[in-house]
Amino acid sequence: MEEEELEGPNSASEKRYFPESLDSSDGDEEGILACEDLELNPFDGLPYSSRYYKLLKEREDLPIWKEKYSFMENLLQNQIVIVSGDAKCGKSSQVPQWCAEYCLSVRYQHGGVVCTQVRPQSAVQLALRVADEMDVNIGHEVGYVIPFENCCARETILRYCTDGMLQREMMSSPFLGSYGVIILDDVHERSIATDVLLGLLKDVLMARPELKLIINSSPHLISKLISYYGNVPLIEVKKQHPVEVVYLSGAQKESFESILRLIFEIHQSGEKGDIVVFLACEQDIEKAYEIVCQEGSNLNPDLGELVVVPLYPEEKCALFKPNEETEKRCQVYQRRVVLTTSSGESLIWSNTVKFVIDVGVERRKVYNPRIRANSLVTQPISQSQAEIRKQIVGSSSPGKLFRLYSEEFASKDMRPLKPAEMQEANLTSMVLFVKRIDIAGLGHCDFINRPAPESLMQALEDLDYLAALDNDGNLSEFGIIMSEFPLDPQLSKSILASCEFDCVEEMLTIAAMVTAPNCFSNLPRGAEEAALTCWKTFLHPEGDHFTLINIYKAYQDTALNSTSEHCVEKWCHDHFLNCCALRMADVIRAELLEIVKRIELPCAEPAFGSEENALNIKKALLSGYFMQIARDVDGSGNYLMLTHKQVAQLHPRSGYSITKKMPEWVLFHKFSIAENNYIRITSEISPELFMQLAPQYYFSNLPPSESKDILHQVMDHLSPMSTMKKEQNVCEKCPETAEQRCALQ
């Protein structure tokens, strides 16, 4: 978000607190009369600024504006309203404002308005835009709540939040009594949290007849939503603008070369407008960015500058929506080329886009419950995604969409709808949440698409291994506390275990660093050697988890001793570290520490650096990640997973890869099946430590392997008394059969 954009709502609001008519009048009757003639904003009681009227004209030009009367009528007379609209029709910004007007008309007797977004970037951007349009202060009348950031106040009447944050709010307020209107936006994205909310809100609506539910979606999912919710009113918004679609079927085999050729041909044609390129994966973004930047510098400067904008999904501030001054400057001097993936479909709002290049494929993460790992699969996008990409072309003048595939490919190989995330992802966190909600009597969730039984069973089994379930399949005390943390259940369990092993401070740092985006910067060509030299100063002999603690401590020391934020950014740049990621880790850690204090968990003084502390950190990690163990089977860095027969290598940026030291047994944080099967964030463990901390019934369920035989030998050499004691504790916890342990209540 650019500075000038952020200043819009705040500067307008500051002016309204000190109107010129009041400042200059000094008791003059003319000044008082002028003030009385001003129209007052009903949301804060202050006169509207001139900017409000300027933005109002823009709002009235949006395709959805003509449906305002129809929407308000349906909102008054119905509990559920579905809004069907194409991308950029205005439904995400205008519908919430109309709902705020409705809540104002009934004096907020049932609560305010909340509007969910799938991505944090969208929630922040929309809140800023809507606060500007409503002529109120961001963080006051309009605010946003995203993971690890709350920009709201008691007087907030309209808040944007991620669907996951509203889901978490249901743990403390199951019936969402603070809201009179709930808006689920971008339902067609089919995120797990949105699908869960769609199901749970059915029960909430029955318990609260005064509550209103608005569902915003693209047209492709409407028939499914109507059959799911029954006969509910539908508001349809059409956004018609001319888009020339060009199919380049021969370009699919050499799509990368075709993309580069198209970018330069468009630029050299002299036609005005920005270019958006949809690539398959982030690696393609990096590759294209480097080539376009390099080749673009050799182009004719009379054509204007070619500015390349890589739009990564993890970057919170990487939302492509330029402010007015930048747009005017761009039309004269610059043409932007935005490189993104499927995750950028809902993040591009600029009307200056006149060309879209679509490769027609994407790399998706598909979770395999049998091996507890994601597979990175390249597959065709859906027909609904292809249509959304078409709608990104600006509406002010005709645009072009280049599809690097044939019409036959679109009709035969593309699925009609984007697959639901619930059918392709790890469901352990979702099941933990549903179990927690069951305490409030909302455990029955009527999903719009049922999750795969195998994925549900795997999630239940994992929660049982983590001691989150009791003998009846309900949440244990451990499970209830684990659900308090906005983290993966394995990471939550490690934090709880760290209380026992006196290493809470260190475990919170690890949790924050692995939750935040990657702290290592993307390296330009030729910088690898210099970066490795810098990173070696942070390496810890015990493993990557400990290296992350070193990096965070060095960042904190720099921040404490620096006179300005610029010094911190320079330090990060000099050490090839991502300053935004480290800032985010700092925020995450602070919130996790707040949760630890709120639920009164014991927290020992930090002792990082001692041998005993290192052992305790490994014990805490193993308590949560005993299912993610691998062994070097040949001494050359080929690691075989303990739970299945997949072989992986250490990631090139692992400390062990840099130092060429390959431990035999490692605990890893992340593993995905792709061209390079890398395990990421690894630390050495001993088989003895694993046998002491892994649940006995988990070990007995492992498939036969050489690694399991080695662990059997280790178990035989352990003290018979300690082994007997552990088995006794395990038997007290677990029921007789796995089926009983994993029963879904």
UniProtKB/TrEMBL annotation:
Region annotated Disordered, chain positions: 1-28
Keyword Transmembrane: no
UniProt cross-references to CDD domains, sorted A to Z: DEXHc_DHX32, SF2_C_RHA
Enzyme class: hydrolase
Mitochondrion recorded as keyword: yes
SMART domains the UniProt entry points to: HA2
Annotated EC: 3.6.4.13
UniProt GO cellular component terms: mitochondrion; spliceosomal complex
Keyword set, alphabetical order: Acetylation, ATP-binding, Helicase, Hydrolase, Mitochondrion, Nucleotide-binding, Nucleus
Reactions that this protein is recorded to catalyse: ATP + H2O = ADP + phosphate + H(+)
Chief localisation class: mitochondrion
Stretches assigned to the Helicase ATP-binding domain: 72-238
Domain of life, per lineage: Eukaryota
A GO MF label: hydrolase activity
Location of this chain's protein in the cell: Mitochondrion; Nucleus
Gene3D superfamilies for this protein: 1.20.120.1080, P-loop containing nucleotide triphosphate hydrolases (3.40.50.300)
The family this protein is said to belong to: Belongs to the DEAD box helicase family. DEAH subfamily.
Name assigned to this protein: Putative pre-mRNA-splicing factor ATP-dependent RNA helicase DHX32
Protein source organism: Panthera leo
